[in-house]
Structure formats: C-alpha cells, structure tokens
Amino acid sequence: MKDRIISVDVLRGLTVLLMTLVNNPGSWSYVYPILDHAKWNGCTLADLVFPFFIFIVGIAVPLAMPVKKDNAENITKVITRSLRIFCLGLFLSYFYSIHFMGLQPGITLLCIRLFFTFCVGYALIGDFNPKTKNILALIIFAILIGLAYSGHENFAKIRLLGVLQRIGIVYFFVSLIYLKTNIKTQIILSASILLGYWALMTLVPVPAVGHPNLEVGTNLASWLDSVLLENHMYIETKTWDPEGLLSTLPVIGNGLIGLLIGQLLMQPMPKIKINKIMAGISLVLILLGLLWSLVFPINKSIWTSSYVLFTAGLALLLLSLIYYIIDVRGYKKWTTFLLTWGVNPMIVFFVSGILPRALTMIKIQDPENISEQINVRDYAYNFWISPLFENQMLSSLTYSVIYILLWSCVLWYFYKNKIIFKV
C-alpha cells in the first residue's frame, strides 16, 4: 500500500461496497427509495455509485502513469486495458446465450456456461505478458462483436453496452487525453464536452419527434441509440440504453474531473493545501451542478451535464474528507475493511454480474407449489430471510447485507494474501 494513495482506495472501496448493496436486493419490489435509482430526473444514493467510480477511474490514470510518455508502448497498454474492461462487461450479456448441443437450462448447461466464463475471465484478467494480453483482448473483442452481428438468433438481441463497457470507453479517452494534453487543455475539454452535450440535447431537434426534448425515450440520446444499436440495447427499455452512445460523452467529463484531481494529488505541495483546494473545488462543482439543473435537470439515465458536476462535486467532497482523515491527520487503522473492497473492484464487478445469473439457473422444488420449481436465489430469500421480517423492505436490505458479508470474507482473504486482480 506504500505506493498507493490510500484515501483513493478507500473511496473506491466505499463506492464498490455501495454498488454491491444497491445492485443485490432480496426483491426489486421492496427497495428503500434512497437505494433505488431515480425514475428519471433527480438523484438518489444509488445514482451516486457509477459517477463516483468513473471519477475514481480518472484519478487513477495519472497515479498509474506518473511519468507522462506519449509513446507506442503506453498507447498500446491503454488500448489493451480498455478492450479487456469492455469485453468483461460484454461477456456478461452473453451468459444466457451460451448453448451447447440442445441442452435445456439446468446444472449441466450451467457448468458449461461457467467453464466459458472462467476461460474468458482468466483470459481478460490473467497476468500475461503484454503481447499475449494484446492478442487475447483483440481476439475476444472480435469474437463477441462478430457473434452479435452474425445473424444467429441466440445473439440477435445481445446488449452491446453496459457499465463495464462504459468504464472501458471512458478509461480509453481519459488516458489518451492525459498522455497527449496539458492541464489547461484538459480543463477546456471538460467544459467543452459538458457545454456541447447540453447544446446537443436541448437545441437539436429529435428526428422522430421534430423538436428537442429531455423526456423518457424521445430525447436525442434515446433516438440515436435506437438507430445505431437497434436490438442491441438494454432489454428493460429497448427504446434507449442507460449506458448508450451519446450519453457516454458527458461521462468522460466525470473522468476528466477525476483526472485533474489525480494530477493535483501528485503536486509537491503540503497535503493540507491540497485538501483545502479539493474541498473548495468540490463546493463550486456542487453549486454549479445545482444551478445548471434549473435548465438541464440532474438525470442519470441521460447523464446530464448538471449531473456530472453535481456528482463529481459530491465525490470530491467525500474524497476531501477521507483525505483529511487519512493523509492529513494520519488516522489509517480504520481503513482495512474498505481497502479490501477498494483494491479488487474488477473481480467484484465481474463475479457479481455472473453469480446472480448462475443462481437463477439452479432450480429446486417450490415448497408452496410442488408442481413448480424455484431458483435457489429466490428460495433463499423467500423462505429463509423474508419470513423473519414484517417489513419486506428491511428483509430485502438484509439479503443485500448478507451478500456483502459473504463478499467481505472473500475479499479479506484476497487482501490478506495480497491477491489483486488487475485488468
């Protein structure tokens, strides 16, 4: 940990922990409003997870490359890592589409799917030499994209974009911008992206509607997704994608703000001064985001520019507090639990995406209807946890907490044995 800024790892750990909490309720029908995403405009605790992580991705770029070298080796590393992250996310969309010799859903097919998952996961996370990493990333990317457009019915509706894919895209652009520009240019780019996106969303008429609008399913970002992605969108909406194409543009803004803060953290100045600068900037960003929201509402689904500033400001404010406690005051003993979550985020992202899918494929007899089957995940919640509480929201939250405790044991083992999965 000596070569890392612990406060950044702690913030990352807190973010991944919160992500795991909000993404794994016992029942989606019973979720406390603050732990559920806003239906459209607005911002809940759940809506802070993704922009916080993107902000941290930006911070980590200069920390991982403290000496800027715009050469072929570094560019290749950036491309390879971006592809590996993208492919990890894209493979999650393929899990249910893996079939073998006409096997029906069951344990045998599940084992086959898990075998492919292990192979792909190892190929993308395994510690190989740079050349092997490059080749594997390119091959897997080509196969996954090729299958999506192969015309085969199993892959006709594969979702191409998603959380990890967006992280990979943002990492790619933020890293290139870091290697090829100075801080002044980065500030100008950040402002230009946010202002440009605002102009596009509020001034450009949507072809299918005839006028600009920011409504569900009829805004410019939604229209572009429906035209370019067609069937390869988020299955819950199908007319737009929450991690769509145009709405990924302002996400780069979150990453660039993180990039600027990462470079600030590397400056040879007193830590208390860095802390004061971060706190001041955070308050300015929050205020600007709230003011901008009067004309461009805070909205995660289309990732509005006001949402970028507001969430980046909150992330920076929290980092300022953590940085003050750890780096300025030197109180570090309490950090271990969050560090176990913060140093291994990608394995949590990937396995947390696979595990629920796998559990839904394991079926047992439904005690309430012997002629029906129920998957083991629903069985555990419905018959072990839910009956313990009258308040079903509390029982749903309890399931999430138990899931976190199980993950904590695994991550503690990794941390204790210095096992870190890097993409």
UniProtKB/TrEMBL annotation:
It holds the Pfam family DUF5009. It comes from the Bacteria. Coiled coil: none annotated. The chain crosses the membrane at residues 45-64, 85-101, 107-125, 134-152, 158-179, 186-206, 244-265, 277-295, 307-326, 338-359, 397-415. Residues 7-184 form the DUF5009 domain. Keywords: Membrane, Transmembrane, Transmembrane helix. This is DUF5009 domain-containing protein. The lineage of its organism: Bacteria, Pseudomonadati, Bacteroidota, Flavobacteriia, Flavobacteriales.
